[in-house]
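Q: What residues go here?
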């Protein structure tokens, strides 16, 4: 695939890029089981994509065996649960630890918007980018500025209707919104890929589920002590993921935390 980049005088010609892989872990709806759904991005240097893909493939084959039909689905929700620390399911824990190892080796950067399940269905204005996506894009723009590189945003493909809504809102935000028009490090062409065809989507899927579980079990509150092997492992995983997140300066003169608990007021209630 060849990307034709828009003419932007602030971009260096011929430099490598940052690939930001994005995945949702849960939805902010009252009917959802998760109290803290997340929208997570994991950023890696484009020069490292081939090596990372090879390492992920090797880790999968070593842990789970061959998959000649490519039908295996290694979802983060299946990896991050109590079963993973039981003897019969230890391969899930082994694989999860190795994937996080790979993220650390290649100095991936993690950004996540943590939402709170509302007691109403949030209203999403047609053709506008939801607030959680705006907050995530702001962090990706700041990371691009920090690295002096462009950021290509790559979403996990859900289904055409949702993907189309996000793609339209993404472009409208960058082209028409006062803040979005200043995002000179975000490539104006978001991509959508299936996790079965691009294994790096597993990075934000796994990281997002670690964050979601950590918040959901109350470890974001002061004084919560892990009880048992699974909770100890979860707290350790979150500490490793949090170490990959960054607090970066923003356009308002302040700082944005890499893992951000978004106030529920930003999940718009219709009529407000």
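A:
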């Amino acid at each position: 695939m060849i990307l034709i980049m828009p003419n932007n005088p602030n971009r260096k010609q011929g430099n490598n890029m940052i690939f930001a892989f994005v995945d949702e872990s849960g939805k902010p709806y009252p009917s959802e089981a998760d109290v803290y759904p997340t929208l997570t991005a994991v950023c890696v240097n484009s020069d490292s994509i081939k090596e990372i893909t090879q390492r992920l493939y090797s880790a999968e084959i070593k842990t789970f065996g061959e998959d000649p039909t490519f039908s295996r689905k290694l979802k983060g929700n299946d990896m991050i649960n109590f079963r993973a620390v039981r003897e019969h399911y230890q391969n899930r824990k082994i694989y999860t630890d190795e994937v996080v190892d790979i993220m650390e080796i290649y100095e991936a950067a993690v950004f996540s918007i943590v939402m709170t399940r509302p007691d109403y269905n949030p209203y999403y204005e047609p053709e506008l980018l939801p607030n959680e996506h705006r907050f995530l894009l702001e962090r990706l723009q700041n990371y691009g500025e920090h690295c002096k590189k462009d950021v290509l945003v790559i979403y996990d493909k859900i289904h055409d209707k949702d993907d189309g809504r996000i793609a339209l809102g993404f472009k409208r935000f960058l082209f028409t919104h006062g803040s979005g028009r200043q995002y000179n490090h975000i490539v104006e062409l978001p991509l959508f890929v299936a996790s079965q065809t691009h294994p790096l989507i597993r990075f934000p899927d796994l990281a997002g589920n670690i964050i979601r579980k950590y918040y959901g079990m109350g470890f974001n509150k002061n004084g919560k002590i892990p009880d048992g092997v699974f909770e100890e492992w979860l707290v350790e995983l979150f500490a490793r993921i949090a170490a990959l997140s960054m607090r970066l300066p923003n356009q308002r003169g302040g700082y944005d935390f890499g893992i951000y608990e978004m106030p529920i007021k930003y999940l718009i209630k219709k009529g407000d």
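A: Context that may help when evaluating the design: Residues 110 and 245 are 5 Å apart (CA to CA). Helices lie at 49-64, 76-79, 90-105, 131-147, 160-176, 202-216, 229-243.
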